[in-house]
Amino acid sequence: MKLNPESRVHLTYCSNIHPGETWAEVRAQIGAHLPKVKAKLSPDRPFGIGLRLSAIAAESLSEPAAMEEFKSFLASEDLYVFTLNGFPYGEFHGTPVKENVYLPDWRDGARLAYSNRLAELLAELLPDDPALDGSISTVPGAFKPAINGEADVAAMADNLIRHAAYLVALRERTGRTVTLELEPEPCCFIETIDEAVDFFRNHLFSADAIAGMADRTGLSGAAAEAALRRHLGVCLDLCHAAVEFEDPEQALESLVKAGIRIGKMQISAGLRFARVDEATVELLRPFNDAVYLHQVVERNDAGLARYVDLPEAFAGWHEKQGDREWRVHFHVPIFLDDLGQFSTTQDFIRDMLARHRAAPFTRHLEVETYTWDVLPPDYRNVDVDSAIVRELQWVRGQLGNSDA
């Protein structure tokens, strides 16, 4: 939904909060939840969807009959799709995902083919609004421990440039602009803003990248560079950034200076422990599920230390002395800032939304609390639709649009 009728900023939530891997499952979840959420938040104006599609769901939606049925549903319910979550390729709910969520990564042609298909779908689903581009968030290259040298980095960059060239051809063919947004995440190849800037500057926007783009598209050098910068950007996930102890002002400034677009901002909160001791570990144990990675970043007297998952952090917490703070990659409802004996990274969200309110730096805002099904029951004491509505109302309040 637009923040107000004149706004060019669109706000939604990611449908990955609803379990579903096949298109039939995704379609059923959308039909069950989206109309209810829209009725509470945007009864008289169109409501946008942040759609998550697995590879098998995307393949099914590519069938003309499925696409026409879905478009008919969107029109009848006054819904529209403007952004896709193209991060998880395969199963994402109810089965252990852990580091496999990054597979296939951007070294693999399967990731390229999947992303190309998503772009085709989004170009067809976008509403008839020339001012509205489509965005697709994706994995930040790969899981960092899987990268074995410069050849892997070059392979990722090559596939990303190939995808950008595909998006150029798609734009020429359909008149719709679709962009890809790499999403920095702890313990991934791109986990910090500095690493994002380095990868874009040296691999995606470099002279060699521009020449390769020109060869693939037939564009001039200047036009090829402009196309790379138009079609490749970042998805700024606020939980990930806060867990990495990013400074909001510095992060935004670094991206602007490097000419890197923020194609989408995912509004999400993680867990924060200002003090770490044995009680901290016990408080965190209920969050240690078997489905997702919950990376931990520790700030101590020596700087930052990282743990790939909670069990590693539990095993190593007592090995160090001195003051420590833990931030944990576990998406919790953004309207929670005080969970009793610990807190969340909501302050980081407040800061970023205040900056966006003062000077908007992206047009796509998406709340993402995909961990609903594995959230400890004490923090899941309302139905999922009510939680989604409350999250989006909270965001609108922060942006000065509580009555929008």
Can you tell me about this structure?
The chain has 404 residues and is α/β, with parallel strands linked by helices. Helix content is 43%, strand content 17%. It contains 14 helices and 13 strands. Helix 1 (23-41) crosses helix 14 (384-398) and helix 5 (150-174) packs across helix 7. The model has no long low-confidence stretch (mean pLDDT 94).
Task: For this entry, give a set of tags.
single chain; 404 residues; alpha/beta; TIM Barrel; 14 helices; 43% helix
Describe how the helices and strands are arranged.
Layout: E1 10-13, H1 23-41, E2 47-52, H2 55-61, H3 64-77, E3 79-85, H4 109-125, E4 134-138, H5 150-174, E5 178-182, H6 193-204, H7 207-217, H8 221-231, E6 232-237, H9 238-243, H10 248-257, E7 262-267, E8 269-273, H11 278-284, E9 296-300, E10 303-307, H12 310-316, E11 325-332, E12 343-344, H13 346-358, E13 364-367, H14 384-398
Parallel strand pairs: 1-13, 2-3, 3-4, 4-5, 5-6, 6-7, 7-13
Antiparallel strand pairs: 8-11, 8-12, 9-10, 9-11
Helix pairs in contact: 1-14, 2-4, 4-5, 5-7, 7-8
Tell me briefly what this model is.
This protein is an alpha/beta fold and 404 residues long. Helices cover 43% and strands 17% of the residues.
